[in-house]
Amino acid sequence: MADSFDTVLPRKPSEHPDRSAWAPLREPLFRSLWVAAVISYTGTWMQNVGAGWMMTQLTMSPLMVSLVQAATMLPVFLVILPAGALADMVDRRRFLLMTQAWMVLAAGTLGVLSLTHHVTPWILLLLTFILGLGSVMNDPAWQAITPEVVSGECHAPAVALNSVGFNVARAVGPALGGLVIAAAGSGVAFLLNAASFFGVILFLYRWKRMPLERVETGRIRDAIRTGLRYGWKTPLVRCVLIRTLAFSLAASSLLALLPILASPYGASGYGLLLGSFGLGALAGAAVLPRFRSRFSVDGVVVFAIIVFAVMTFAAGRVQAFGWLSLVLFASGTAWIAILACLNVAAQTMSPSWLRARSLSMYLLVLQGGMAIGSAAWGSLANKFGVPTALLGSAVALSAGLVTVRRYPLTSHELQFSPSVVRD
After folding, report:
1. Do residues 120 and 200 lie in contact, with contact meaning Cβ atoms separated by under 8 Å?
2. pTM to 2 decimals?
3. Quick check: 360 and 80 in contact, CB under 8 A?
């Protein structure tokens, strides 16, 4: 039957569950969203390349160039918690339509101004910040709808596939963006990013969402306090956040320093190394369900962290491009296993009416930890060299394993029944 966006009664988990890595893509609702999301992610990476390149065309100030990334990350610290509260207080489908439209407007405006040569460094930073605001406002609600668009038994592989989609876009988007910029300029890349959101908008417009049993009411400030209070008092939430922080701070070095590692191989070599990381993520998603069926969540995460730590150390020691590609492939495999397990735990650690707020705390810890860690490892590399910084990162990853016994990860079937589409 053709893809349908109608919501019907969920199957019971006992009815022949299919836990293969690709099972979620057999469900039309999730498949449509996943394809649209990958296109949107690809546009986002093209935007990132275009913004960085355009700033170098406007000014060679290292400060202004670095502020492009800062303008993208700053909204995480400013609005992620209010975004989670709003996503629990309003209809998530309508909220996502608004955030997607916000990003279309920001990217489209930047594209038009670029093509008409009206962009200055500060205008570029302002519109990059506005686009980042829309992205951050979008994230908690976007993560929270995953259990609503896939059957319960496919939830874990669906989370892994979402991460795979992002990593595939990370491998394809920069290379595609570079080609577009070389051929037509950054303005066209910005407009293509604006167009990339329309697949998600079409999905959300057609999706008939099942209403939740309870929706948070009152003021945003009170909703945020409720979420923070729940996180502070709930052991499972504290475990997920502490484990996420320990990983994100330690693991951020490899991707942050990868441009330096790839510099001897040029832009094409950098793209190929990112592609190796993305292919590793794809492979990791394929084998993750099998590992999860045989080992505990903590067992999978511990093994993957050890692999990632070893590969982080190896990345600072290998010289040949082929070996570095293999290191990135293995790193991508471990990366997807860790983040998929953390994400599933984050999505199942709270009831549905609190899920977006809990996810906003998780995203704040994850992305904030990556940003702070990247700066710290970059400073260490600047003073002592890249190999030493990667060694320190590997040691920090290993040391973070001491949190496993005290803060174990668990995940459980969601009490809120996710939607299932007709076969």
Report:
1. no
2. 0.77
3. yes
